[in-house]
Design goal:
transmembrane, alpha+beta, Alpha-Beta Plaits, 8 strands, Multidrug efflux transporter AcrB transmembrane fold, two-stranded parallel sheet, 421 residues, transport
Length: 421
């Protein structure tokens, strides 16, 4: 070796650079797209638990203190609608409220304009009115504004009314709860059969998180809860479960037979799975959000605040919450549950012990304290062991597997192509 080094110095030879060390660091979007495992999600799960816990605490506090704004289908009441286009021009909500107060001696619960242009209508919501009060209000509205019918002429028939009893709202609530329970039971059965009980527990906890946060957003902002909201809520729970299953499927693929290797721990394999599904989750969410936004634009600018708006609103909130929970809540919770098992704990200890041994060998080789074997060895074997790079403590995110160039016999490892000479 000394003779070889002297010859290299005399000939001016330069040692080849380390290709792995010379590899440039990729940017944020490249790492996000390739899913190299560079984003530490599982390792920072305590932070995500704290963020998720804070969100849940705010939502629960709002639901307990502020409650919800229920629609007429849940609370019961009377709704009167009339075209905004009248003989004297477009009517305003303040004018309608004044007529309501003067006629019935009390204020309506809400008066809103739905839609725009010629299709705009004024919707009046109040507590349950008797038939006489409803007819009196219709007459007063027609005499003051003379709304135009479909033929463009003033018509009293253009003013419609509908009444919903509180019993009907209770029936809707009961059926919604039954549908929710059935959905959760079927989801738990499917995930337990398809995966394992830990994944089922994590998935159900994620669904509960999505349900609480979505309901909490409605409570905090004051959105009106309608039957369309309940339908949309069941829809976004299905989306959340779908996104969670995608991540769990990749976790199962990466951790299959993990106990037979000591390269990565279970948590590191799960973190790699989350990174590998980042782009898929983001793309799925964007594809889901775009039609929802289009639906909201149509509902607001063309049809006004109605059933479509309620349905689109809860879906938009649910997709955002479901995307967050599937990445930053479901998989970290799964890892926390699995790390309580003896199999994962013992495997993690093996990986840590292997890395400690590799670090100790690397330190000994650097300090020159490596002991010399008592048995005589060949010069090639000694050179190979001395020049070999010690294994890293932890695989670098996105690092490609490096093929060893030497073996104990001093020959190049791998298959040799005898045809290329």
């Amino acid at each position: 070796m000394a003779a070889k080094s002297a010859n290299d110095q005399q000939s001016g030879a330069v040692e080849a650079p380390d290709l792995e060390a010379a590899t440039p660091q990729h940017g944020f979007f490249v790492r996000l797209y390739t899913g190299t495992g560079a984003f530490e999600v599982i390792g920072k799960r305590k932070l995500w638990y704290a963020v998720s816990g804070l969100i849940v605490a705010v939502c629960v506090a709002s639901m307990l203190l502020r409650g919800f704004t229920f629609g007429i289908d849940f609370e019961g009441g009377t709704k009167v609608s009339m075209p905004a286009a009248t003989e004297s021009g477009t009517v305003t909500t303040q004018q309608v409220e004044d007529v309501f107060n003067r006629t019935l001696g009390k204020a309506p619960e809400s008066v809103v304009v739905v839609g725009s242009g010629d299709s705009a209508t004024v919707q009046i919501r109040s507590e349950t009115l008797t038939n006489e009060e409803t007819e009196e209000l219709r007459t007063a509205l027609f005499e003051d504004f003379k709304p135009k019918g479909s033929d463009g002429q003033p018509s009293k028939q253009a003013i419609s009314d509908s009444a919903v009893s509180e019993t009907w709202g209770g029936q809707i609530t009961q059926k919604a709860l039954i549908a929710l329970v059935v959905f959760l039971v079927l989801a738990a059965i499917y995930i337990t059969v398809r995966y394992e009980r830990y994944m089922a527990v994590a998935a159900l906890a994620t669904l509960a998180f999505d349900l609480i946060v979505t309901a909490g957003v409605y409570s905090v902002v004051g959105f009106e809860v309608t039957p369309a909201t309940v339908i949309g809520l069941l829809t976004i729970l299905g989306f959340s479960l779908y996104d969670t299953v995608i991540v769990f499927d990749k976790v199962e693929e990466n951790t299959h037979g993990f106990e037979h290797t000591t390269r990565r721990t279970f948590a590191e394999q799960a973190n790699l799975a989350v990174n590998q599904t980042f782009m898929r989750s983001i793309n799925t969410s964007l594809i889901s959000v775009l039609p929802i936004l289009a639906l909201m634009v149509v509902a607001v600018w063309l049809l006004g605040v109605g059933t479509l708006m309620d349905l689109a609103l809860v879906q938009l909130v649910g997709v955002i919450v479901g995307t967050y929970s599937s990445i930053f809540f479901a998989t970290p919770l799964l890892v926390s549950l699995r790390e309580r098992t003896e199999l994962v704990r013992s495997h993690t200890r093996k990986v840590m012990n292997r890395r400690k041994g590799a670090s100790a060998r690397a330190t000994g080789a650097t300090d020159g304290t490596e002991t010399v074997a008592d048995e005589p060895e060949t010069v090639a074997a000694t050179t190979a062991r001395a020049d070999a790079t010690p294994p890293p403590d932890k695989p670098a995110p996105g690092a490609r597997p490096a093929r060893p160039t030497t073996s104990r016999t001093g020959r190049p490892s791998g298959k040799r192509d005898t045809r290329r000479r």
